[in-house]
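Researcher: I'd like a structural prediction for the single chain below. Treat it as a standalone chain; there are no partners to consider.
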Amino acid sequence: MPGTAAGLTAGARTLEAALVDRARRRDEAALREIMQANNRRLFRLARGILRSDSDAEDVVQETYVRAFTHLDGFLGESALSTWLSRIAINEALGRARGRRPQVELGSVPEATLEAQIIQFPLSSAATDPEKSMAQREIQRVVERAVDELPETFRMVFIARVMEGMSVEETAGLLGTKPETVKTRLHRARTMLRENVEKKIGPVVMDAFPFAGERCERLTEAVLRRLGIGA
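Model: Treating it as a single chain, here is the predicted structure.
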């Protein structure tokens, strides 16, 4: 969803308003739809601040509880996704500063929330164990490199690159100017590239292995062609 209500088409605004209205009435399907549409973004934004999967999951759940118990406060001045993102960022920042905001839980059916929250991170089983292992290692290198970016650059990178948010949407979400977003994104990409290159060096050195059975097989084949050995 675009970041501002003005950026939504008339049809999209109507659909979102209807969805929010259903959610206000605790319609389970509406709650599910909202969460499934926003889970990944909220998780990534929260993790960008806390750098912890488990803490980020907690923030996502708290965000939904806070949002669903205060839907009357959503006036449609921004897209629902942006409103939820701001709640998640504030919740994550509060935790990062050692504060645990109290959230009223009684207004939302507990079973509904627990049933609908999608666990993170989501992944599918790979059919090739070796390829899967290599991909996981590369993913870990990139994740560590992103985690090590200073927070101001990390949040812009996550919003713009990982979530595909526009410059204007990112600026509005983070409370900064579009020009600042562009500058920080450029700097984040430079820092990330340098960090990944530094970290991936040892991994690259082990790429394209030629040892074990493959090495032995080739050695024996060459010796046979040369008439050496059995």
